[in-house]
Amino acid sequence: MAKNNSFSGTGVALITPFRKQETIDFSKLDELIDHVISSGVDYIVALGTTSEAATMSQSERTALLQFIVESVNNRLPILLGMGGNNTRAVTDAISQTNFDGISGILSVTPYYNKPQQRGLIQHFKSIADVSPVPVVLYNVPGRTSCNMTAETTLQLAEECPNIIAIKEASGNLPQVMEILRCKPANFNVISGDDSLTLPMIALGAVGVISVIANAYPKEMADMVHFALKGDLKKALPIHYKLLPLMNAIFEEGNPGGIKALLEIQNRLTNQLRSPLSKVSKTLYNKLRELDSVFQNQ
Questions:
Q1: Measured between alpha carbons, how far is 83 from 132 in angstroms, rounded to an integer?
Q2: 167 tagged catalytic
Q3: What is the pLDDT of residues 66-79, one digit of tens each?
Q4: Active site residue 112
Q5: Which one is catalytic: 3, 112, 125, 167?
Q6: Would you tell me which CATH number, out of the four given (3.20.20.70, 1.10.3660.10, 3.30.260.10, 3.30.70.890), belongs to the domain 9-229?
Q7: Fewest C-beta in 10 Å: which of 28, 86, 219, 246?
């Protein structure tokens, strides 16, 4: 399959609203999807880490994906989170998935079992071989305890036509720069860290898969679009306005911070599924103050 780089600009790593009974609040999710789309984001990420997909049953994930596809209604591309630490289970899941309305897969490096680099290459080649849609790699060693090196990323980019990009959330800018320096022209790098998006775009990245864009979709989309046009005069003030909130929402883990912020904005009930828990009262109050300052600037 030829590379198809439709995932540039701002992608939103959608949260999943829950009711107090911990059932999915589809009504609030529909409202959130409409809000981020109308605010100018470029694509939607479904069932990513921020969605709490790991705490859902397979039937819930299937129902959630179907709802997101119907709610988005072809207005934007959808990137579907499909990863794991059992290669065969991931490829079987891909083979059994209905990809109508889905534009690509976001696949995280295997977690917990800490494979070597040659294991990562085998894993992602197996996923690319079976996937009917383009694959975006996802490197986030802070969550997986497994870093995919620049050399491994570049080998996959060269050898797998169906692997079109990487979401780089290592926070390792020298590693990111090595990928950007040596990558094929038709392979993209996407920021996986909200706060590093602007510097990564300056280095050659094509955008971000963003958590803060759940709460500030217009501002994040505007910042990214200005940066991609090389207009730092307009991008920098937005970056620095958002930066305290970008940092604060991750102080006690994701998606606890962004859900607290969305409750402060009256967009959902601040409910997470165990083993995740709500942020502390101290951080909640800090987020409330930061949001107030942001809205009044």
A1: 15
A2: yes
A3: 999 999 999 999 99
A4: no
A5: 167
A6: 3.20.20.70
A7: 86
